[in-house]
Specification:
- The chain is α+β, with helices and mostly antiparallel strands.
- The protein has nine helices and nine strands.
- The chain folds into two domains: 83 residues, 2-Layer Sandwich (Phosphorylase Kinase, domain 1); 187 residues, Aminoglycoside 3'-phosphotransferase, Chain: A, domain 2 (Alpha-Beta Complex).
- The strands form three sheets. A five-stranded antiparallel β-sheet has the order 1-2-3-5-4, sandwiched between helices. The protein has a two-stranded antiparallel ribbon with strand order 6-9.
- Helix 4 runs antiparallel to helix 5, helix 4 runs parallel beside helix 8 and helix 8 packs antiparallel against helix 9.
Length: 283
């Protein structure tokens, strides 16, 4: 997709003197826009409307109330394509320990229930966010089973995976019927592609998928695709220590994220998903 004068007119950010396509993830097109006095980052979801980005805006505002995030400028629809415009970030290098402290600060923002005040149904991985008191019920019924239904429709499911999932869900429900969790504000997609450091070294979080849940879920995602430096986990633990046994529960939450990748990208994630479920059952 190419930007044009109609785009710039509807964005209404002044005279755009330069623009270029930049990297912006797997499901959006992204652009750097330069006006006479500012720079902006524009994400576009082709053939969708601006409501596609409502949840991201909500997440940036929620997380941005306690830690550093990009600042939403506006969102909407142009010529049948949804967009989100934020301030432009100049990236540099930083210390993973500072990032760990910042994530811990985000997780200290609590709620009295798990979930969010609305569902996310227009995403490629839908979420049912009905408020729950029991974390096990929320995670099994409103996260795992929602995605299992999605991958079944795409024929990425089989009896072996079904048997593993039944055993894993029983273990999770049993554990959390006896272990209470305080709901934390979660980023929801916390891997190294969704964090960075500004030019002055300040850590920053972006592309959130927020809800209130068990913070072990965010930590599990950080460990799925390479993780962060050792300092991240050391400084996080100093700021907000995790519950005993958290390392052994990591496969429970990586199962969810691997299900999400199976749903988005196909069978290439099937073997990893099965491995996570087997590890989760062993706990």
């Amino acid at each position: 997709m190419e930007l044009n004068d109609e785009w710039f007119k509807q964005l209404d950010i002044g005279n755009v003197v330069d623009w270029k396509s930049v990297s912006g993830g797997d499901i959006n097109q992204s652009f750097e826009l330069t006006t006479e006095d500012s720079k902006y980052f524009l994400k576009v979801q082709p053939d969708n409307d601006g409501s596609f980005f409502n949840h991201e805006v909500e997440g940036l505002e929620l997380i941005g109330s306690v830690v550093n995030t990009p600042k939403p400028v506006k969102s909407g629809t142009v010529d049948g394509n949804g967009y989100l415009l934020t301030n432009y970030l100049e990236f540099g290098e930083g210390y993973d320990g500072d990032l760990g402290k910042m994530v811990a600060k985000m997780h200290k923002k609590h709620n009295d229930k798990f979930g969010l005040d609305h569902n996310i149904l227009n995403a490629k991985n839908p979420k049912i966010n009905t408020w729950q008191d029991d974390w096990g019920v929320f995670f099994v019924k409103q996260r795992l089973e929602v995605l299992v239904n999605e991958v079944k429709h795409k024929r990425y499911w089989n009896q072996y995976r079904e048997d593993l999932m039944v055993q894993l869900e029983e273990k999770i429900l049993d554990f959390y019927s006896q272990h209470k969790v305080e709901p934390s504000l979660l980023h929801g997609d916390l891997w190294n592609g969704n964090v960075g450091y500004e030019a002055d070294g300040s850590p920053i979080l972006f592309d959130p998928d927020v809800f209130y849940g068990n913070r072990e879920m965010d930590i599990a995602m950080t460990l799925l695709f390479g993780g962060f430096g050792r300092e991240f986990y050391e400084e996080y633990a100093k700021e907000y220590p995790l519950e005993l046994g958290w390392e052994k529960r990591i496969p429970w939450y990586q199962t969810y994220y691997l299900l999400a990748h199976l749903n988005l990208f196909g069978e290439g994630y099937g073997t990893s998903l099965e491995g996570a479920m087997r590890k989760g059952i062993e706990y």
